[in-house]
Amino acid sequence: MIERFESFKKIYILFILTICYIVGELGHYLIGVTSRATARDIDYGDHACQLNNTKFEKNSLPIQCDDISEPESCSGLNISGVQYCEWDYNGLGLEYQLLAGPVFILVFTIVGVILGIAADKYNRSKMLFVCTLVFGVAIVLQGSVQNYWQLIFLRMIMAAGESGCNPLATGIMSDIFPENKRALVMAIFNWGVYGGYGIAFPVGRYLTKLNLWNLSWRVCYYATGVLALIIAVLMGLTLKEPERKTTNTATTHKHSEKTSLWKVLMEPGVIMLTIAASIRHCGGMTFAYNADLYYNSYFPNVDLGWWLFAVTIGIGSIGVVVGGIVSDKIVKKMGVRSRVLVLALSQLIASPGAFGSVYFDPFWAMITLATSYFFAEMWFGIVFAVIVEIVPLEFRSSVVGIFMFVINNVGGNLPILVDPLAKMIGYRESIAIFYAGFYLISSVLFFITMYFLEGKPKAVVPATTQTEDNINRVQNGVDNRSYIPDTVTMQQLSGRTTDKNYY
């Protein structure tokens, strides 16, 4: 009964942490779906000639709305006296890109590093409760904004709260789940990013259209924020700080020559993994910030909201789980390098489908998007499993926080270039480069990263019999419980030192 209770407890913790992440990401991505309605309400972004609410099909129009660049010409387009275009905010432009990306990412990444470092020293469960409370309140208040700058400020507060989710939860889960479940657990948790993003489509589109209590887009934020506050209360009442897992004596006890955080960050494998993940993250964020606006711009008569929901939630979920399972299975044979191989192959296979989702008509765009999503979404959980396996446990949350800082600042801010490039070569072509093109580039970088990581792990032998070769292999192997700093000498390892700090 005790074993069953412990198993249930672990599942509950994973469930509550994942739901917390989903709700936070839902609040994060709602702006990409509600932006047109939000912009028309509080005035920000670009104006454009757009198909209005008349029932004309786009392919039956004598002149397309998006071919017109002047408001007077736009209002003059009609069929039998019925105006079919309108000049209004389209939800795009530099102000939108700033709101969706840099404003959020700047605070998210800086506070994330601070919380990641704090998580290695303080109670992570209490910190996570406070973070959830903060972003829940911020999301609720976003529903009441009256101007653009209020929305900017509240997204910054929301980002500060949500920034703690990943580093804090990653540390908690690494302490309660065994290594052979690590990639799957990380994949399920980090699926929260895509879960929140996928749910944003029906919530942002259809709740806005329902116009409940005449609140339009605002009700989406009220509902999401209240749900976040409920999760915060549950976490505060039920989530306890787990016992931190120990490593070996070389890493759990203080010694005269400690491995520094800077040295860990400067490992070639960590650097290459960070670069590859940043490029991949840019591709994902480009699609996340622009998908609804892109398909509405090119296919205004086709309601793809439920299609996008089904692909991101359904297909994406399967891909996340499959990626975690495959990674956990083959890591026993090939070592941590196998996880990166899964990353590289999955992004390579996903790239053609990503291009198809941009250039094909709606039906085939959704088919190719589903194919691409299955493979593309394998990446997020696996990359965090790699991170926690190649760094010493004493720096785990700190490294995760810094890793998130880098990939979010690069991957989250590069999509701001979509708008100026779109004005030069076209919106579709710009999306293709930053979305599908960056998937392909990340695949190449993941392949390169493999050669900086160790292959099949060797069995860990007692410290008294380890050779220098074994030490090097263990240091880069899958089981980071045996991480040993370079400064530890063979004499110290064999017990022939008089320094009591090494025992």
UniProtKB/TrEMBL annotation:
The chain crosses the membrane at residues 12-31, 96-115, 127-145, 183-201, 221-239, 304-326, 338-360, 366-387, 399-418, 430-453. It holds the Pfam family MFS_1. GO terms for molecular function: transmembrane transporter activity. Residues 13-454 form the Major facilitator superfamily (MFS) profile domain. Its main location: membrane. Keywords: Membrane, Transmembrane, Transmembrane helix, Transport. The keyword Transport applies. Belongs to the major facilitator superfamily. Spinster (TC 2.A.1.49) family. This is CLUMA_CG015071, isoform A. It comes from Clunio marinus.
